[in-house]
Amino acid sequence: MKKIAFVTGATSGIGEAIAKILAKDYSLIICGRRKEKLEKLAAELNSSTEVHTLSFDVSNATEVAESINSLPAEWQAISVLVNNAGNAHGRAPIHKGDLADWDAMIDSNLKGLLYVTRAISPGMVERKSGDIINIGSIAGKEVYPEGNVYCASKFGVDAATNGMRMDLNPYGIRVMGIHPGLVETEFSMVRFKGDESKSNDVYKGMTPLYALDIAEIVKFALERPAHVTMADITIFPTAQASSTIVNRQN
Ligand code: NDP
Ligand code: 8X3
Fold first, then answer.
1. For residue range 145-175, what is the model confidence (pLDDT) as tens digits?
2. Which residue has its alpha carbon closest to ligand 2 atom 4?
3. Nearest residue to 19 (alpha-carbon basis) of 214, 150, 177, 188
């Protein structure tokens, strides 16, 4: 067995790319709600590394604890936690927001990340080693119109990341926040509930980031020597200058 990396949201997009890029150097615990996607990815990665799948909803505290407690002994010493699971649900001005969308975003993006970290970090503390990478967003650095609650969930991720770094500092655990701008994944299809035209408009006339671009940064951050922590990394596609300024001339 190699060192173990635990990746949430590995069934698509950024998390799937992270799992693929880490397969050479780590044994992998890959997570997501869609079991068939997890099994497919596990089958694909099995030729490069040992893979364990865990299907659970990060927003359900009981499911998170039970799933992580169910890990066989040989899978328990997790070296790397990548908290990536999350999505935007809807985009609306505050007075028209959908409460179910709000709950889904706060519960998955922020509370889910906390539940998973609460379950895995005690082992890292005990072993006095580990790396935690939280996938935040530019939406957690600057707000944009109609992004209200998604942005709030990601500002929460940024705050939690900085707090974790302080709390885990005595134990030599590296805590890193990676904050992408526009990345073309299933993200916008989920946000706009399957509306392909709205989803395509997000990336219209510009070259977005791709999931692999973020996975490469994750790999690079993990490969820094032990005395180096890439604490806070914002990554834009070159066509993007801020949450609201995107050059769409292509
Ligand atoms: P995708 O929609 O492609 O992937 C989202 C992943 O999160 C899926 O694997 C999904 O798995 C998982 N997930 C979502 N909700 C839950 C849940 N409640 N429980 C368990 N797993 C869940 O989007 P991305 O790859 O783009 O998003 C990954 C992360 O990157 C998110 O945190 C997102 O906020 C962030 N991000 C994305 C950007 C972008 O422009 N795409 C930019 C900045 C940040 P399943 O459905 O199988 O449960
Ligand atoms: C995803 C990036 O700008 O769509 O976190 O919110 S954005």
1. 999 999 999 999 999 999 999 999 999 999 9
2. 182
3. 214
Sheet strands side by side (includes 78-83) = 51-55, 26-32, 3-7, 78-83, 131-135, 174-180, 232-235
Q: Tell me: the pLDDT tens digits for 13-47?
A: 999 999 999 999 999 999 999 999 999 999 999 99
Q: How far is the CA of 130 from the centre of ligand 1 (A)?
A: 23
**Contact at 8 Å (CB) between 28 and 3?**
no
Pocket mutation for ligand 2, best pick of 138, 179, 183, 206 (most atoms within 8 Å of C-beta): 138
| Catalytic annotation present for 150 | yes
Ligand nearest to the CA of 105: 1
Residue 174 to residue 24: CA distance in whole angstroms: 21
**Ligand 2 neighbour 137 (Cβ under 6 A):** yes
Amino acid code (one letter) for 136: G
- Closest ligand to the CA of 190: 1
Tell the residue number behind the tokens 């190699």, with chain if given: 2
- The DSSP H or E segment spanning 91 is none
Please work out whether the CB of residue 27 comes within 6 Å of at least one atom of ligand 1: no
Architecture of domain 4-235: 3-Layer(aba) Sandwich (3.40)
For residue 233, what are the β-bridge partners?
178
**What's phi and psi for 27, nearest 5 deg?**
-80, 145
